[in-house]
Design brief:
Helix content is 43%, strand content 20%. The protein is of the alpha+beta class. The protein has 2 domains: 85 residues, no CATH class; 87 residues, no CATH class. A 3-stranded antiparallel sheet has the order 2-1-3. The protein has a 3-stranded antiparallel sheet with strand order 4-5-6. The two termini are 37 Å apart.
């Protein structure tokens, strides 16, 4: 089970103000350091995201441990902003060890056997450290869904398709991180 919480506009405005302060502070630093320039850009992007409806999603464990982890109670907003309990939509999960690609893959499937959750960890021999990867990586799943119907992946087995797209995902992320 998961908990979904819509963040009210008043709270979003606080975050946007904090982002402005941080961005203005970064702009005052006189340097040619590209890391700072990227942070200024990322701050602008984040502020743009906060112009949309913002929903926070927590696992049941994160929700139950919110107070002890953060030192404050989970927010109880006014009517219309109550936390919503979401039933898990997957029917079953798989954890596959792929020795050839040296990775362990986590897959969530719905009742139609469609992949609706995806994550992985490099190092197929390191199964005891896999527990944090047993949840959906939304970015990886979105990337997978963009490419799964491409003609290049049309006539290959599903697990091979998953692996090829995961490699592509990490290559794309690596390139993106350089910029």
């Amino acid at each position: 089970m998961k908990v979904s919480q819509v963040v009210p506009n008043a709270q979003i405005e606080i975050v946007k103000k904090a982002l402005d302060v941080y961005k203005n502070t970064l702009k005052k630093v006189e340097t040619d350091d590209t890391v700072i320039q990227y942070e200024i850009f990322d701050t602008t992007v984040l502020k743009g995201l906060f112009n949309s409806k913002v929903t926070i999603e927590l696992t049941e464990n994160e929700y139950n441990n919110f107070t002890s982890k953060n030192g404050v109670d989970f927010p109880q907003y006014s009517k219309g902003f109550e936390p919503i309990l979401i039933e898990e939509k997957y029917c079953y999960t798989e954890v596959l060890r792929d020795e050839y690609n040296d990775r362990i893959i986590y897959i969530e499937r719905d009742k139609y056997n469609t992949i609706i959750g995806l994550n992985c960890m490099q190092g197929a021999d390191d199964i005891e450290h896999f527990e944090p990867f047993k949840e959906n990586d939304h970015l990886m799943l979105e990337f997978y869904n963009e490419f799964k119907y491409d003609k290049e992946y049309k006539n290959i087995a599903e697990i091979e398709k998953v692996n090829k797209i995961i490699w592509l995902f990490f290559k794309a992320r690596s390139v993106f991180d350089k910029f």
